[in-house]
Amino acid sequence: KAMVVLLALILTACMADETVFMYDVKGTDEICFTETLPENLSVIIEISTKTDALTMTVTNPNGVQLFTRNYQRVMKYPFTSFDAGVYKICVVNTGSYAAEFTFSLKTGIDAKDYSDLVTKNNLKPAELEAEKLIETVQNLHKSMRLSSGRKFSRPAVLPDGSANTNGLPVLDEEAYVWSAPTERYRYTLVFSWVLSIGVMVATAFFSYCYLKSYFYKKK
Predict the structure, then answer these.
(1) Is the N end or the C end of the chain the one with fewer CB atoms within 10 Å?
(2) Rounded to 5 degrees, what angle do the CA atoms 108, 113, 198 make?
């Protein structure tokens, strides 16, 4: 069982989806990020800063504003993406000076609290990891059906004239698409499929070990 739990932890860690980076927004300026999400996915968006001049809004694919928060140093929004499509997160600096903030986006098992599930069903550690593995595979399949991607509406410009995107692909603002190489996307797709197969194999192995142990105890 220990090996099963360890394998589950490794696979779920590899497939965890969390994005964290820092960004500067100029005074009286706005910066927006977009994230393509499948339906029924757990999500947590968090903005943290040292200033009281920022506001944050989250809009769903239908243009409905789901969340707004003003002038707080930590703005956190947990939700479930009931509609598949592009979600828009905007940060506005109402102050006169540039402000730095940290953007955090968690999805899937990283954004879900399993404490109620464990208490209600009295799940053991191995059973909980198996549940996470199954949910990870389901979320992965949903995501791969969409054209996933993260985009900026206005990258910051460095003194030398280059765009500061903190290592992320540069946005072609006029076309509003990434200029990221397609080769990278293909590698990511293949890697995701390999991990998906690994998770399914691990889940089947866990089920076999669990049932074997269960019937052994019955004897």
Answers:
(1) C
(2) 40
Question: In 10 A of CB 194, how many CB atoms?
Answer: 11
C-alpha distance from residue 124 to each of 2, 89, 136, 162 (Å) = 12, 37, 18, 52
Nearest to 176 by CA among 149, 153, 147, 148: 153
Instruction: Give the start-to-end residue ranges of the domains of the chain.
Output: 2-218
Q: Give yes or no for residue 164 having a pLDDT over 80.
A: no
Q: Per-residue pLDDT averaged across 171-177, rounded?
A: 37
What is the number of other CB atoms lying within 10 angstroms of the CB of residue 47?
21
Nearest to 148 by CA among 64, 76, 44, 41: 41
Cα 104 to Cα 130: distance, rounded to the nearest angstrom: 26
The count of residues in the chain is: 219
Q: What top-level class would CATH report for the domain 2-218?
A: mainly beta
pLDDT in the model for residue 198? 65
